[in-house]
Amino acid sequence: MINVGILGSTGYAGQQLVWLLTNHSNANIVFLSSHSYEGDLYSDIYKNYYGFNKNICINIQEAECKLNSIDVLFIALPHGKSFDITKKALEKGVKVIDLGADFRIKSKATYEQWYGLDHQCSELLEDSVYGLPELKRESIKNASLIANPGCYPTASILALAPLLKAKIVDPKSIIIDAKSGVSGAGRNAAIPNIYTECNESIKAYSVASHRHTPEIEQELSHLLGSDLTLVFTPHLVPMNRGILSVCYANLTIDMSQEELYKLYDEFYKDEFFVKVTEDMPETKYVKGSNMCHIGLRLDKRTGKVIVCSAIDNLMKGAAGQAIQNMNIMFGIDEKTGLNFPAMLP
Amino acid sequence: MINVGILGSTGYAGQQLVWLLTNHSNANIVFLSSHSYEGDLYSDIYKNYYGFNKNICINIQEAECKLNSIDVLFIALPHGKSFDITKKALEKGVKVIDLGADFRIKSKATYEQWYGLDHQCSELLEDSVYGLPELKRESIKNASLIANPGCYPTASILALAPLLKAKIVDPKSIIIDAKSGVSGAGRNAAIPNIYTECNESIKAYSVASHRHTPEIEQELSHLLGSDLTLVFTPHLVPMNRGILSVCYANLTIDMSQEELYKLYDEFYKDEFFVKVTEDMPETKYVKGSNMCHIGLRLDKRTGKVIVCSAIDNLMKGAAGQAIQNMNIMFGIDEKTGLNFPAMLP
Amino acid sequence: MINVGILGSTGYAGQQLVWLLTNHSNANIVFLSSHSYEGDLYSDIYKNYYGFNKNICINIQEAECKLNSIDVLFIALPHGKSFDITKKALEKGVKVIDLGADFRIKSKATYEQWYGLDHQCSELLEDSVYGLPELKRESIKNASLIANPGCYPTASILALAPLLKAKIVDPKSIIIDAKSGVSGAGRNAAIPNIYTECNESIKAYSVASHRHTPEIEQELSHLLGSDLTLVFTPHLVPMNRGILSVCYANLTIDMSQEELYKLYDEFYKDEFFVKVTEDMPETKYVKGSNMCHIGLRLDKRTGKVIVCSAIDNLMKGAAGQAIQNMNIMFGIDEKTGLNFPAMLP
Amino acid sequence: MINVGILGSTGYAGQQLVWLLTNHSNANIVFLSSHSYEGDLYSDIYKNYYGFNKNICINIQEAECKLNSIDVLFIALPHGKSFDITKKALEKGVKVIDLGADFRIKSKATYEQWYGLDHQCSELLEDSVYGLPELKRESIKNASLIANPGCYPTASILALAPLLKAKIVDPKSIIIDAKSGVSGAGRNAAIPNIYTECNESIKAYSVASHRHTPEIEQELSHLLGSDLTLVFTPHLVPMNRGILSVCYANLTIDMSQEELYKLYDEFYKDEFFVKVTEDMPETKYVKGSNMCHIGLRLDKRTGKVIVCSAIDNLMKGAAGQAIQNMNIMFGIDEKTGLNFPAMLP
């Protein structure tokens, strides 16, 4: 059994981790920590756990004292909050999977510019691994510190990777128009998040300034072999879960839609969690699962390719992918605890 | 392995069965039949099954030919459609779990009055078992034919059973005001079911005339030991899943709320799938799970007790309970394939 | 022109008043006050008012200084906050329409018991008028202080009034099971109000303890001519607007459903805003309007009558009714500014 | 009074026309026709009209006989159904406002290619006016036949017009990523439209093939003075109403965001129904109104401008704009019957 601790267990990503670990045959929850609910029974906060979970939330200091009893620490804290505990955990030989943004950006300067705070562990950046298994599986196997990808980056990078790897699109032409369910805004009591403000409306937000932009650019630049910049526009959609990432790029060679499909099929042929689909994807078909569906169309009239990917932001976009990374790091079947489809309707 | 066939696999209850069986460690899907989608790949209808299910939907005649290769047949057809195939399956020694209404009402006359058609298998009614495990577990163990309870009856009977068993309420005073998500209306292309007609609205329907009324009355009468009639009012609520059943009755003895809680705790103390909760339940805490949450309040000013139960209409209210019945019938752990909490949010 | 001031203009009821007054041919907004947004442009808070409203929110002290320039003051503040300003306004001859609860309950003791605070203006209770025009139109005409009814009481009293006036139901048997959209919870940043917590779920709340209970009981007791107590159960439904109030009572005389309909038709025959409908009502058909739809069924099997009323909680349940009261108080056509149906879908 | 007839009055656009005309001070509904509900009371189909509308739906033949009694005919029929009646109405001197697509595309060949049917009235195309008042007000004044713009084109053309008129973007770079509420799919009983299939999901549809593409291209080409092609991607969002159109283009000159805002402010400075807003728009702020909100951002890193417009698809995107056109054609205040903001929440 893999012994597990979770920091930030009462946020939505943390709670999704608890759900997945509750049903995971090879893992055991040792502690759940929470800043807001210290001392509370976990099943009093999330009442779906009546009969399933008896943990009482501890604080981060208590969690620190229990590092010796765990094999892996999941961190689901706001950015800037994971530096200290990550160092301590790694020193004790505990593997760390950080669901936050602190170890995703390899350039200290870029991190500090977009996140507006000093990076206090830049020495760890070199060895940290960007935990997108479909692209980095080998590095993940031996990593001690995983920077679990952001939700929008997961969907967007998986959608665009085959094109950039094949170098068949103009990197200056890339536009990502992505749409997320409201759980992406977190479990956060603020007026813009209340039901009556979100319901029956859609908006774009953080236009030309969202923090996931440099993360997507970094990973796509790696694939391409040279630096690129792109436009990324996130939206808030009135639904609980799901991300649809619609990506546009100018094709630089003559290719049919059929050939593009072949490229994608080949690229993802061994991946259980990525399915290239004839139809354009809908988020409901991946909701609550770790799956990513990708569809594409070639617009012959304009020479642009349109790639559309769908994930569940809390699963493949956060906790599901974190479990996938844990499975790889501990050498067990990558699908353990994740081998189920979306539940409809 | 238990070999399984499903009739009506493309309705919402049928699809929920497919989901549960896909993840069930002791069961194996042999065939899926569908009237509307004969010849289609199941994963082309429900695209969440890409990579999980390779069945092609067969018709009911083909299903009939495969009865020899299954141990249990799930029937998720409209009422009146299961008589013939049930007889044939039972003759071949195949156990039958009918998710429809055809074998729930023990009185042929009552069935015919409320459902408006002749019962063509009334000879099977005596041996069929009403599959509510918390009340009928022993009979289910040896049953060949299970009448899987309706969604509203499951929630309502579980809410009221302790009161009626204890004979502490006036049976003439019972009112059930129940609210269901839209999946309860089925996967049915009709104007009242379209998004823009259901969204942002609530209505009561089939007031004083819903077909689940005699089913609830039958089972509560059994518990009480004498016939009762009650008021049952169903509502349609703009959400996919969930039933909240709020039940009112006049208490006939002097009792405190605490004593009422003790009665309920005692009644359900050995039941994994029923939790008596201090708070009044919310459907989200059981959504996608086989759990039933029950809360109650004594209104001292009026002498009425208010009991509130929450289930997922497609799980404990249909497919989840059907799997629970299958597990009991085949002597395996009742929780197999159902041992997970609601996924939030 | 009627000159108008609004206290609490940035809550949902206050905002609905602004909307209605913007389109009202005989009224003129003099000031909008807001505790939370003092100094802000109203159209920066509610951006739907770009091009329609140039007010800057003032605080309550500034509002007090402007009492001389208005004819009527609408108060949409939390209970307990309107005592002082109401006295000052009345002293200056300004009519007051209070959308809060402070002047609805005629008994000081009952108010203090249910609201948990001292009533500081009980001397005004005798002359204040409960502003339900369909029952109190004559008193409203000459009132200086209107206690605008609560949302649940408006729906519930209109549903039950004909039965109680006719004295044909057992007053001990009355149960009101009411369902409200989330705007009923106000514009309030709290975890239970955020989108992901409300969406895809229904719950009952304040069971056997909601503060609208004594208000409903007071008005129905007046109609009946003697005191009654009843059960009132409110629910939160995932939609922005609307209340459906389903009321149950035992009929004490022999009557057909047809005769009951005649009773209702007769009772409301001159009322523009109340329609007795053959079908059971749906909240969408009154959403955004000042209409109340009422339908009913007699359940012959149990001798119970089931009356169902639908209103928009922010319109007939708050701001719409407040405007209706203003129109009556100022002797203009009661329908002014309210003469439009629900907008669908 | 302007005497009005409506063909297709029971679809969502038709019903929105009825709502607007019910409240219009200068118009009078003479007849409502409906293919599906011939002979039915309008208020039995749309129960919000109880007390507001006493029309019985007539069929198209009866409507034809009443052309003499109306001044203007609104046609809200599927494409291909309006040719014949349009000719007849125009011959009798009745003005026609067609909410469908049949007279929007000036090129017969383009229409036939995208809509897949013969155009039977191409002789009317020259004199028909594309009814987007902000761009064509003078032509609308004297028109007999208005082709009322599509919902997506209205939002997209208003968003991009200032850029193309100013010729400061590369026409080959234009991408429109638009999102619509479900009422855009019509009142149509089909499985993909039912609540449980649309709710909690987002999808792109008709990617690189939607029929609104040539309409947008035609109007933007006019503004630019030369032909352009562009990418247009529509999406379905789980909400009743609203379109958000997010438009991307490469800026070809050096300009600041401030200067871009000035360009837009200047372009729309006399337009009541178009507001250029500092914040990026949200559909809720225009829902139920005839307003269009436009916001924009310059992404300096990529040289791309991102313009975002929000409308209500049934109002400014259909019936509201049709009434605006009627007002202009009949020489009355353009805002008549449309002078109200969105109702929140």
TrEMBL record, chains A, B, C, D:
Highest taxon, organism lineage: Bacteria
EC number, UniProt record: 1.2.1.38
GO cellular component, one term: cytoplasm
Database matches in InterPro entries: AGPR (IPR050085), AGPR_AS (IPR023013), AGPR_dimerisation_dom (IPR058924), AGPR_type-1 (IPR000706), NAD(P)-bd_dom_sf (IPR036291), Semialdehyde_DH_NAD-bd (IPR000534)
Semialdehyde dehydrogenase NAD-binding domain ranges (all copies): 3-143
Pathway: Amino-acid biosynthesis; L-arginine biosynthesis; N(2)-acetyl-L-ornithine from L-glutamate: step 3/4
NCBIfam families: argC
The protein's name in its UniProt record: N-acetyl-gamma-glutamyl-phosphate reductase
Gene encoding the protein: argC
